[in-house]
Amino acid sequence: MRNIKKDNGGSNKIRSSSPLSRMRRTGTDPEVLKLDFLEHLNYTMGRTLELATLHDYYMAFAYTVRDRLLGRWLHSIKHHMNNKSRFVGYFSAEFLVGPHLENNLINLGMYDCARKALAGLHIDLKALIEAEKEPGLGSGGLGRLSACYLDSLSTLNIHAIGYGIRYEFGIFDQEIRDGGQSEKTDKWLSRGNPWEIIQPELSQEVGLGGYTEILTDEKGEYKVKWVPAKMIKGVPYDTPITGYGSLLCNTLRLWKSEAIESFDFQDFNVGNYYEAVEEKVTWETITKVLYPNDEPVTGKKLRFVQQYFFVSCSLKDMLRVFGIFGVSPQEFHDRLSIQLNDTHPSIAVAELMRLLVDEYEVDWDRAWDVTRRTFAYTNHTLLPEALETWPVSMFEEILPRHLEIIYEVNRRFLGLVRLRFPGEEDRVRRMSLINESGERFVRMAHLASVGSHAINGVAELHSELLRRDLLRDFAEYDPALFTNVTNGVTPRRFLLLSNPRLSRLITSAIGDGWITDLQELRKLEQHVNDKAFLHKWRAAKRANKKDLAALVKERCNVTIDPSSLFDIQVKRIHEYKRQHLNILHILTLYNRILADPDEEITPRTFIFGGKAAPGYYMAKLIIKLIHSVADAVHGNPVVADRLKVVFFPNFNVKNGQKICPAADLSEQISLAGKEASGTGNMKFTMNGALTIGTLDGANVEIREEVGSENFFLFGLTTPEVAEVRSRGYIPHSYYEADGELRAAIDLISSGFLSGGDPAPFQALVQSLLGSDPYMVLADYRSYIDTQDKVGKAFRHGNRWARTSILNTARAGKFSSDRAIKEYGERIWNVSPAAAGRLNAPPHPAEGPVLIGHRKDIKNL
Angle at which helices 531-556 and 500-510 pack, to 10 degrees? Predict the structure, then answer.
């Protein structure tokens, strides 16, 4: 049984014996599902059961499940508008939602009915789940966090809408060729997306370029009019997002760019065939690809336009919807709170001001008050280079009116700073929205900070460092702006869905309340000394490891031993994530085995996964190094008997769901003070993996929760990092002082890993020995010694299993439900279950859903 099927008090569970369960379009009875599936196969897909392909089956069944979502979705809109409940808008350039089918079946409580319905037609539900293409709407943790939050908002009955971009092509599909990364177009939409609903009548128009005019109205008041040079159309595509145990169904609204006039007959008639469609091709490019390589100027411009495009469409859409129901622009903030997920949507501050002042003729001070009370800003990085800045010249070319607004916001804000800190012109320069040194830039993090009523970091340490370092001046100016909301992940996808064996075991021991209250996992502590339970826990983990071993054999053609320690580091490939520190450990073990084949070394399987940005040379070099080390390890029979190295290609949500449940050890080894939070660390802990990590990001809180004795800590602390730097960090001195470190680096620089040619990895070696910006060498010895402790601990199977149970039992804090409750209380002024207890949506036969019983209201 794939899904846990207890009622859990959820009002959305329709028992298969009830009349409702047998209703077409809404029922969950297997026979009803079978009939609806066949109807979609015939009349939506145009296929017979005998001639349909696996993809046809998937599409038809996805439409069948979507029917069950739509009744809830329309009913949720009705409930929100009739009850005037407060609303949350979540603005994010990425939503890495993952595959929908299995997640929706679990949240709707109908997995088993679906399996039985399809089995009656000799169709395997798991095959349909595997056939689904993952939506390419995000590149990593930021986008996955957004998706987790949408799940929790629906589960907690908080009305919300996520706004983003409908990328036609995702970031890229990763292929490995000759040990290196190769990028392939992610054509996730090529065969259709059954979960989305296009809403062309709700399209918005967005201006770019042009100039501004100064006018005076009939009252003689000063006005500014923006005259754009070009206009683009934004077409919304809606995806219903349901929660677990809730009848509320929220919306993910993504914008696709189109030309307003897609075809020029004049050009076509005179033979200019390419020019006739040039505008269509140009404007559709805006939402073609997720985050292009922004090194070239053209790439930077495209990314800049992408961000403004989706923000402008979204704000206009919100003003339109609330206007229909009589909410004036001056009252916008009373019904709505908008969260800016990092700096990508921060241009929203200037755009809302423009809309209020220029188009709705709200006076400046009132418009600014509404704007600040509407927005809140989440910072996701401690790396100064990751804080977005855009050249003033780009604003002048693309958004001239917004630049004028930013200048005026800056003038007024810096006047207040001077009043608060008289004579401190250095502080004024640091806090300015415009960086005046060299080429002038707009600091988008400053714009978001000035234009928001709340600023939060995403882990306790991160928020502390934000206040102390990155945004110190703003924290000193107004400390009440700052708060912390530690990230969380949804247990529905990352435990219930991805680890059914462990989920069933947990539920058999403590009930299923943990699915919506993860702190319930604490009850597992009562079972840590139960030998029978320990045996079942270990059996579940071993079965998961066997599954992953089979997948590794299929995808990577490497045979791995499920009894070995699965040591896993899967995340974006970046120097600050320090995958190369992990590699140095592998090479150290390699050298030890060669020096003494009889040395007791715990067999390990090292599994890496993650994508490198296409233009990030050093990250791609790290991927190449991992494969070269794997070749060396597997090529030596003495070493290969105890060590295996695997790079799992194209890491994404779907693959992560298969990898996390099998992990014994979770590598969270970034330099202290560099990782904002991390969410992979939470997913692994939730699935019973032990963590080796530094005191960085959410690792600090994970260690506090699970207990220091159940966490493998190593490395410099954040204050120690600062102290070493202040003394003058000389990485070469660590190389000279540590024989094992020297031997590992020499193995790389000698050319041994690259066919005798030392050149391929010289850039990496020179970086480590020269500057080593992320202090790999400084943390090496502590890391190696701690890994030795890991190896010894793993040999004690039951003791390791007890620690694994405690990691899961104490992971309750890291649920996205807890994070959303904190956002609601501290920032949004909304409460869980704010929607009240929704009644079941009407069956289609009972008539359509009417908003407020007003049949004349359209275009919601």
Answer: 170
Point out the catalytic residue in the list 64, 239, 605, 679: 679
Please tell me whether residue 747 adopts helix, strand or coil conformation. Answer: helix
Estimate to the nearest angstrom the gap between the alpha carbon of 306 and the chain centroid.
18
Clarify whether 571 is annotated catalytic: yes
Q: Which of 5, 30, 522 is nearest to 244 (CA)?
A: 5
Phi, psi angle pair for 547, to nearest 5°: -60, -45
Give the three-class secondary structure for 404. Answer: helix
The span from the CA of 804 to the CA of 798, in Å, is 10
SS3 content of the chain, % helix, strand, coil (to 5): 50, 15, 35
Taking a C-beta distance cutoff of 8 angstroms, is the pair 343, 387 a contact?
yes
Nearest to 731 by CA among 784, 670, 675, 781: 781
| CA 61/CA 39 separation, integer angstroms | 10
Which residue is associated with the tokens 């929220």?
A: 250
Q: How far apart are the first and last CA of the chain?
A: 40
Residues 277 and 252: beta-carbon distance below 8 Å: no
How many helices and strands, by DSSP H and E, does the chain display? 35, 23
The DSSP output letter for 666 is E
Annotation says 122 is catalytic: no
Q: How far apart are alpha carbons 564 and 838 in whole angstroms?
A: 50
The active-site residue, picked from 572, 580, 644, 802, is 572
pLDDT digits (tens, 9 = 90+) for 376-433: 999 999 887 778 999 999 999 999 999 999 999 999 999 999 999 999 999 999 999 9
SS (H, E, C) 570-619: ECCCCHHHCHHHHHHHHHHHHHHHHHCCCCCCCCEEEEEECCCCCCCHHH
Annotation says 380 is catalytic: yes
Q: Catalytic site residue 683?
A: yes
Q: How many CB atoms lie within 10 A of CB 500?
A: 19
Q: Using CA atoms, how far apart are residues 291 and 300, in angstroms rounded to an integer?
A: 9
DSSP state of 222: E
pLDDT in tens, 23-80: 788 889 999 999 999 999 999 999 999 999 999 999 999 999 999 999 899 888 887 7
Report which of residues 7 and 769 the model is more confident about: 769
683, 802, 818, 821: the catalytic one is 683
Residue 597: how many CB atoms within 10 A of its CB? Answer: 12
Catalytic-labelled residue, pool 571, 585, 611, 703: 571
pTM: 0.93
Q: Closest Cα partner for 292 from 283, 279, 305?
A: 305
Residue 536 annotated in active site: no
Beta bridge partners of 607: 568, 646
Q: Look at strands 173-177 and 180-184 and give their pairing.
A: antiparallel
679 is an active site residue = yes
